[in-house]
Amino acid sequence: MISVTSIQPTTTPITSAATRTSLFPHRHSDKLPFPPQHLHSCRSLRVRAIDEAQPYDHEAHLIRRFTQPTKLKIAVVGFGNFGQFLAKAFIRQGHVVLAHSRTNYHSAAQSLGAFFFSDPHDLCEQHPDVIILCTSIISTESVLRSLPLQRLKRNTLFVDVLSVKEFPRNIFLQVLPQHFDILCTHPMFGPESGKHSWQNLSFVFDKVRIGDEESRVNRVDTFLDIFDKEGCRMVEMSCAEHDKYAAGSQFITHTMGRVLEKLQLESTPINTRGYETLLNLVENTSSDSFDLYYGLFMYNKNAMEELERLDLAFEALKKELFGHLHEVLRKQLFGKAEGGFGRPMLAKLPKTLLPSKAESLSNSSKNGTPLLSDTLGNKNGTPYLNQSQSQSL
User: Fold this and answer.
1) In terms of pTM, does the model score above 0.70?
2) Three-class HEC string of 282-310
3) Nearest to 159 by CA among 178, 187, 139, 191
């Protein structure tokens, strides 16, 4: 019910269309229920105070109810290069971004349209819908434990964007209470590879723990939709599967890039396309911090095996080269190759090293020369280099 503190009559003529519309909010035209010539003789009422909302405010309430869930309040913890890179896309799609970092990025946040909080307590008191950790792999656990979780909403969604997945998954499950949602993600791109567009770039995600409530399910879908709208190729897989694939792709890529960086490769006037690709690889990997590369190695249990296979492949390739050189020298000395002598060829390495072979490789590496014949064999179990070839070498 509407209570009116005072009602005052007025005989002021009402002539403008805007005024007529404000007096009759339920009508959407300028037609009045009585002829306009009678306006001067009408007495109107002016409402001075209202104790409760007007009935038609219910429509605005419904509009807010159905439009607000499509826009998220996202807190980016770790507002460095990668955090700002993601924040631009969030803001571009109309989401509210709150930022926090050890370094003062107030000016950078303001230029992007984000809100920066130097104190994590102030950040959490804003009750963000999503908290996304954009920290280094090494500092993830300490940063997570430093957040005042008691100041957050009980169903807050936590997201990580690390290059390894099982490690943050286990940390989240260990530290976060049961009432928090967990989404592990890995954008397979960065500020360099995604500076022009995210079109067809892979985005891996695993819904580790999401509540059954419709609002929580919709919130996760809304967050993932940000990357879908940017054109990413959405790939859902478990954290364990991700780490297995990443060790054989991302870790090897970073390793080769850093090895080539040690060679100090330079552009030449006769660059081939392949060499240009190597230069681009060095540029992309060297722009990332060593902490990232170390994290790929330290926090992915599959990385050590890939590093051993890489070392094994390099030694096998050298033996193939030296074997070919040995054959050429024998032809020069004796005129022709001896019967039964064949050039040793590089065989494909097994996908998974057996524990005994890995241990043999490790022990032989300590002596300075890996014993390739002890660690590799063909399908029959014999070494790739036969006995006569080994003796001649």
Assistant:
1) no
2) HHHHHCCCHHHHHHHHHCCCCHHHHHHHH
3) 187
Residue written as tokens 């500020």?
A: 191
Cβ atoms < 10 Å from Cβ of 200: 8
The yes-or-no verdict on residue 225 having pLDDT over 50 is yes
Output the CA–CA distances (angstroms, integers) from residue 276 to 144, 231, 279, 282, 363, in the order listed.
41, 27, 5, 10, 38
Choose between 122 and 373: higher pLDDT: 122
- Measured CA angle at 151 (ends 145, 154), to 5 deg: 95
- Given phi > 0 = left and psi -120 to 50 = alpha, else beta, which region is 335? left
pLDDT of residue 192: 85
Read off the pLDDT of residues 301-346 as tens digits, 9 standing for 90 and up. Answer: 999 999 999 999 999 999 999 988 888 887 888 876 555 555 556 5
Predicted confidence band at 43 (pLDDT cuts at 50, 70, 90)?
low
| β-pairing verdict for 130-133 and 73-77 | parallel
Q: Any idea which residue has 């992007």 for tokens? A: 112
Pairing label, strands 7-10, 44-47: antiparallel
Predicted confidence (pLDDT) at residue 349 exceeds the cutoff of 90: no
pLDDT at 367 exceeding the cut of 80? no
To 5 degrees, how large is the angle CA 306–CA 312–CA 318? 140
| CA-CA-CA-CA torsion sign (31, 35, 36, 38) | negative
Q: Give Cα separations from 253 to 223, 237, 258, 281 (angstroms).
A: 29, 21, 9, 8
Categorise residue 368: left if φ over 0, alpha if ψ from -120 to 50, beta otherwise.
left
Q: What is the SS3 assignment for 81?
A: helix
pLDDT at 49: 55
**Residue type for 344, please?**
P
What are the backbone angles phi and psi of residue 54, rounded to the nearest 5°? -75, 155
What mean pLDDT is reported for the chain? 80
Burial of 131 (0-12, 13-18, 19+ CB in 10 A): buried
